[in-house]
Specification:
It is built from 8 helices and 13 strands. By secondary structure, the protein is of the alpha/beta class.
Length: 259
Amino acid sequence: MHFLRRLLLPCFLLIAASVHAASPSVLVCGGNMMKGNHFADSTLAVMRTHYAGCKRVALVLNASLPAERDKMEVRLQEAFTHLNGAKAQSLHRLDPAGQQALLESADGIFIGGGETFVLLGDLYRTGQLELIRARVAAGVPYGGSSAGANVAGLLIGTTNDFPVAEIPSRQSLGIFPAVINPHHPAPETKADFDGRAGKIKIYLQFNPTETVLALGNTAVARLHNGRVSLEAGQGWLYRADGVRALVIGEPVPELARKP
């Protein structure tokens, strides 16, 4: 019986991995999702659902300046304690082996905001891009805000960032089925809104096969069970044939993942 269990265990693990791979849970926020040392009120419900059951969350803060990472870790540790009692720890305090061990053992991942090009370059350099992608495929919930949302997408294209660091490729984690545009202005600020919309439309003229999901500050979209929906705030879906505003709670069929 012991031999049979050893023989069948790899098969069970492969089956479980393939099931999870079809339905990753990915949450992306347009930015500014912190209110003090807690997550913004409008994001709490979906964040609690997304990280339900998580006890240890790995924080990836590479997008922020090194001098700011200690302070940001403390804020996020308090935010996750307030959210669901989870313990959060940042990779930046660990050596490379420790960082890999944390990513392999954590049951939740959160990537914060800052400079997208710095973040993506570091993920490539450390090999963590592939590791995070594999962990999400295995069912570990992923959350990202601003730059952390950018790298969740298929590639970085409408990041709003200056390219302050070299990257091997614009291809990113590819765990969310769109290009992300965070910090999208609200329609009430007409000049800013029109300016951003115009830039995204020009981007799509050069990249007509891509789809851009634009999210305002504190806006949250979530991929779960192959379904994408706007869960908080304001969001827009841009394609070469037009743009439409998203409605909270309604599925976005253009971003549905095939099983």
